[in-house]
Amino acid sequence: MDMYEIVRQHRILAILRNIPLDITLDYCRSAIEGGIRFFEVALNSQDAYQQINLIREALGDQCLVGAGTAITAEKAEKSVKAGAQFLLTPGTPRDVLEFCVQKDIYLLPGVLTPSEVASAMEYGFKTFKLFPAGSMPINYIKNLKGPYDNTNYMAIGGVSENNIADFFRAGYFAAGLASGLMPMDKVKIGDWQGCTEHVKQICDKAKAVIYMN
Questions:
Q1: Would residue 98 show up in a list of annotated catalytic residues for this protein?
Q2: Beta strand pairing status for 174-177 and 152-156?
Q3: Annotated catalytic residue 40
Q4: CATH value at residue 205
Q5: What is this structure's pTM?
């Protein structure tokens, strides 16, 4: 199932990659208080499935949580059983595309090239994760949307407080942040108020330009 409406309502994604299980809820609450209610747990993190279940059980009424790096149908199915409300992939694995279409599961397929966009569109998708966005020229998105003008893209990879507004100005529909979401020195000492303030700054910078797209 295409994620256009969900992404339209949640234009910034918080990506949890290698966040220790024991601080997961503090981390997520800090992001929620800062203005983000859209989470991805990377499946190549330790305790990822348990983390998804924990967030869903404790904060399910405050946010949406999905599973990223869902590179096989087996991982996709296990994620859904753990409570994931949507999935993300770094590429376009056909078994995952087929699984999500057959099971009516929300998916944000990862694309980089026109061929990958075309492949995912065959399954009915029009909203994508462009990865790694930070490694591409900032105007790449406009060139990609030229032949595929009815598609929308979330920038993931290299997004930070300093450049998030640039991605939205360039034409990205949404953005996801992992290491750039919170200062790790503050995370390590449990300065959650400081983390919340950082997230607020990110959201404020994005909101200044977000509705240009």
A1: no
A2: parallel
A3: yes
A4: 3.20.20.70
A5: 0.96
